[in-house]
Amino acid sequence: MKQLTVELGERSYPIWIGPGVIEQLPRLLEEAGIDSGRKLFIVTDEHVAPLYLDQTKSQLQDAGYMVYHSVVEAGEKAKSLAVYERVMTEALEAGLDRKSAFLALGGGVVGDLAGFAAATYMRGVAFVQIPTTLLAHDSSVGGKVAVNHPLGKNIIGAFHQPRLVAYDTEFLKTLPPREVAAGFAEVIKHGLIWDETFVTWLEQNAEGLQRFEHDLLQEALLRACSVKVAVVSEDEKERGLRAILNLGHTFGHAFEALCGYETLNHGEAVSIGMVAAAMLAERLGIASGISARTRHILEKYRLPVMLPHAMNADEIIEAMRRDKKGEGGKLVFVLPTAIGKVEIRKDVAEEPVREVLRALQEGGES
Ligand SMILES: NC(=O)c1ccc[n+]([C@@H]2O[C@H](COP(=O)([O-])OP(=O)(O)OC[C@H]3O[C@@H](n4cnc5c(N)ncnc54)[C@H](O)[C@@H]3O)[C@@H](O)[C@H]2O)c1
Ligand SMILES: O=C(O)C(=O)C[C@@H](O)[C@H](O)[C@H](O)COP(=O)(O)O
Ligand SMILES: [Zn+2]
Fold it and tell me: Which residue of 45, 139, 152, 308 lies most exposed, with the fewest beta carbons within 10 A?
C-alpha cells in the first residue's frame, strides 16, 4: 500500500491507497489518534452495506471499538437535510460523544454526508474516509463536506478534514460500469488542470485502466490524488488556487441541480461541464484546439459530452449565478488555456455561455 500526506500543519493526515488497506484499519485508526474503546459510527449506503459493512464492522469490533452504523439510500438524493437529520438522530441514539468518530464507508455521497455530520455533531468530531468508488479518490481528500439544496449543489456545508483516508482498491472491483466512468471524469479533470503528460498517459492507457489493471489503476490514483493533495495543501479553504479543482463544475453543478439530482450523476455532469468549459475558453479567445481533445478523451472513457435532454438556458444561467465561486451573481468559470493549464475567469458575459449551451444541446462543435 502507498501513502500520500495532506500537509496542513497539525491537521495533516495520511491517505493510504492499495489492495488490503481495510485489513489495516484498526492500526491506522490508532495511529491517527482514534483509540480502541471509542464509539465509531459508520455511515454507508444501501449498495455498499451488503458488500462491505459486516467485514469492516467486525474488524473494528475485534480491535475493541464500539461500532454503530447508519445505512442511507444510495445516490445523490441522500445528500439532503432530511437524511442528514436522520443520521444525526441515529448518532445521538447510539450515544456518540465528543471523543467518538464518524466513518464514511462509500462513495462521495456518503463521504460528503458523513463528513458534514461529523463537522456539526457537537460542533465537530473526528472523521475518517473509507472510499469505495473511483470518484472518491477526489471526494475523500480535502475536507469539503456538504449536503445539497434543491436550488444548489453542496450549498450547506463546511470544511472538515478527515483524520485519515483508507482507500482499499479491492472495493472498486464491484463498481458498476457507469460509476467507473464517472470516477474517470474526476481523474481526467486532475490531468486537465495540472499536467498534460498525465492526460497523454490517460489517453494511451484508456483500455487497461478501464479493465482496472492493477499497476495502471494504482498509478492513476496516485497521480490524480497527488494533484489534489498538492492543491489542498497549498490552499485548504479555497482562498484562490483551490478553485481550479472546480474545472467543469460551474456548468456541471447547474446541470445536476436542474436534473433534480437524478438523470446525471456528478461525474457525468462534470464531464459535460469540462467540454463546455473548453468550448467557452475557445469562444472567449483564451484557448484554441482544446475542446476536441477534451471531448475525445472523455468519450474514450465512455463519458457523456452532450446534454442528454433539453434544459432551459435561463435556468442553467440562474443556477450558475448562485455558484459558490461567484460574488454578486457574476458568472465565474475555471477555463482551460491549454491541456494541463487553467485560469479562473470572473464576470464572464452571458452571450458566449448561451452559445455554448446551445451547441451542447444541438450536436456540439467539431
Ligand atoms: N467533497 C469533495 O471534494 C467532492 C469531490 C468530488 C465529488 N464530490 C461529491 O461526490 C458525490 C459523487 O460521489 P460518487 O460518484 O462516489 O457517488 P456515490 O457515492 O453515489 O456512489 C455511486 C454509486 O456507487 C455505489 N457504490 C459505491 N461503492 C461501491 C462499490 N464498491 N461497489 C458497488 N457499488 C458501489 C453507490 O451505492 C452509488 O449507487 C457527489 O455528491 C459529489 O458532489 C465531493
Ligand atoms: O475539492 C475541491 O475543491 C473540488 O472542487 C473538488 C470537486 O470535484 C468537488 O465536486 C467539490 O465538492 C466541489 O466543491 P464546491 O465547492 O464547488 O461545491
Ligand atoms: Zn467534483
Answer: 308
Asked whether residue 108 is marked as a ligand-binding residue, the answer is yes
Residues of the chain with pLDDT under 50: 366
CATH architecture of the domain with range 177-362: Up-down Bundle (1.20)
Fold topology of 2-174 = Rossmann fold (3.40.50)
Residues 139-173: tens digit of each pLDDT:
999 999 999 998 889 999 999 999 999 999 999 99
Q: How far apart are CA 102 and CA 110, in angstroms?
A: 11
pTM, to two decimals:
0.97
Q: Where are the domains of the chain?
A: 2-174, 177-362
Backbone angles phi, psi at 330, to 5 degrees: -75, 155
Ligand in closest contact with the CA of 266: 1
Number of C-beta neighbours around residue 289 at 10 A: 10
pLDDT at 364: 53
